[in-house]
Amino acid sequence: MQSEKDNTIRIKRLSSDTNFYNNVFKKTEKIVSVIFYILSETKHSESTETHIQSIKDRSLKTHEYALETLTLQSHEQHEGLLQFQYALVALESTLRIAHMARVIPQDIFVVLTDQLDAVLRYINNHYLKNDGISIEELTEVVVPKSTPRPTAKASTNPTASRQRRVTIPAGDISTDAYLVYSQLTDRADRIKTVLEAKPQATVKDISEVITDVSEKTIQRELNSLIERGEVVREGERRWSRYSVSK
User: Fold this and answer.
1) What is the pLDDT of residues 110-153, one digit of tens each?
2) Most CB atoms within 10 A, among 54, 90, 171, 176?
3) How far apart are CA 29 and CA 19, in angstroms?
4) Hey, CA dihedral for 51, 53, 56, 57, is it positive or negative?
């Protein structure tokens, strides 16, 4: 006889995904809370009221979408997260217009848009990309033809084999890509590997993959690569983008 337990189907929703809850939902909740606090301290006038109300409306709508994502099931995630992304982009656009109208100060605008951008990147890299790569594709040990394949006993010798530099498929800087860096110890090679996968990358793009060093350290390494002619830069300051020299 079939038990009641056998007829039970467990439906997994995004609310049970700890990473999503902390890095997407809670972060969005904090952004919206900060926005409302800032607006409460902003001087209201006839010229600012329209912008303030628009930001409030967009912020509330974005929070509603964030709440709705928690109930999404596997087959609903793609469509639901795309709608949520649109709400985030719309909020960022509304903040940008308010900033240009001098309703939102420059430093506050930069912080808010950076946080919104981080949420968008997290969703895109962790939940909307289906072209991940396996560990086998990421790593490969190559033994020189002139050298016999080392036995388990001899494998402790670091010169017995060498590792071929691994590559990431173009455009893929997803979380799977971090596995590459257990195989690469040279910081310059790690940075160039990211730039080969994503040309025109910013320092923020690189730091999302190379997480064990600071953005300042990555910037210093990029400057050294530029001086050696291995990397080229386009744009200035925070708008700078980097690519491997052809």
Assistant:
1) 989 989 998 998 898 888 864 444 444 334 444 444 445 544 44
2) 176
3) 15
4) negative
